[in-house]
Amino acid sequence: MKIAVYQMDLVAGQPNENRKRVKNWVEQVTKQEQLDLLVLPEMWTTAYTLEDLPTILEADQENTEQFLQQLAKEHHIHIVAGSMAVKEGDEIYNRAFVMNKNGQTEYTYDKVHLVPMLDEPLYLTGGKNSAQVFELDGRKMGVIICYDLRFPELIRSLALQGAEVVFVVAEWPLSRKGHWEVLQQARAIENQVFIVSCNRVGTHDGVEFAGSSMVIDPWGEVLEKGSVEQEETLVTTLNLSEVERIRKEVPVFSSRRPNLYK
Ligand SMILES: O=C(O)CCC(=O)C(=O)O
């Protein structure tokens, strides 16, 4: 499975500008490479404009879900479309979308762990359901959003559901870059899955972001890593048969003693 990750900068509060940038990127990258799947970062339509989200979302004329479906269909490519702020009644969710190559929404997930350090609980509503696996080309995968990375139980539950790849879409700050890197490697090693992350670059409201998007194999080796500051595209081929091989070599899942973990 050949993938491309768009480590992008975002234009705060301007969904139209960000859609244009994503459209251009998809057109370019699919011309240059024969790809199966694309990955976008967290909250890429608006960035972290939490206070202004109700106004921005109400003013936005275009339906981004349909925009993504159209892109996926036109380029016949799966898109793990990062996450977007979505308004439903009075609630706003930080929702991840996965589009399949036929242009259908394959899966959505609302971020369950809201970030106290960013006052997310003041502006957003946490997801009510845990993350589930979805299937693309017959392979099971999962997606989590940024702060979720700190909760090993969530990724473990995806691995137990059969995920071979877990995508992490993020706006992770530079000040905690060390955690970002170590936690991703740990999650890959302990669950023997590929971790594919897409973090933004740039700054917003004085916060610098860490970039450093990564592709990590189920042994914990970093196959690709983005820089801290630059917009970049990471292109990698995931050899999914590695998951089974590594799970045979170190049989963590059959050594588990879940009845003792109370
Ligand atoms: O956990 C962290 O340090 C960063 C989390 C975050 O920025 C997010 O979830 O958007």
Mind explaining what this structure looks like?
- This is Putative amidohydrolase.
- The chain is an alpha/beta fold.
- It has a single domain, classed as Nitrilase/N-carbamoyl-D-aminoacid amidohydrolase.
- It is built from 8 helices and 14 strands.
- A 6-stranded mixed β-sheet has the order 5-4-3-2-1-14.
- Strand 1, helix 1 and strand 2 form a beta-alpha-beta unit.
- The protein starts with a strand and ends in a 7-residue tail after the last helix.
- The mean pLDDT is 97.
- 2-oxoglutaric acid binds next to loops.
Main β-sheet, in a few words?
A: 6 strands, mixed
- The overall strand count is 14
* Strand order of the biggest β-sheet: 5-4-3-2-1-14
Give the H and E element order. EHEHHEEEHEEHEHEEEEEEHH
Relative strand content: 25-35%
The CATH topology comes to Nitrilase/N-carbamoyl-D-aminoacid amidohydrolase
Number of domains: 1
User: If classified by CATH, what would the architecture be?
Assistant: 4-Layer Sandwich
Helix content: 25-40%
The global form is globular
Continuous helix count? 8
CATH superfamily: Carbon-nitrogen hydrolase
Q: Can you tell me the CATH class?
A: Alpha Beta
What is the residue-averaged pLDDT? Answer: 97
Structural class: alpha/beta
Q: Any low-confidence stretches, pLDDT <50, length ≥5?
A: none
Radius of gyration, taken over Cα atoms and rounded to an integer in Å: 17 Å
Instruction: Report the end-to-end length measured between terminal Cα atoms.
Output: 38 Å
GO molecular function, one term: hydrolase activity
Keywords: Hydrolase
Domain CN hydrolase: 1-240
Protein name: Putative amidohydrolase
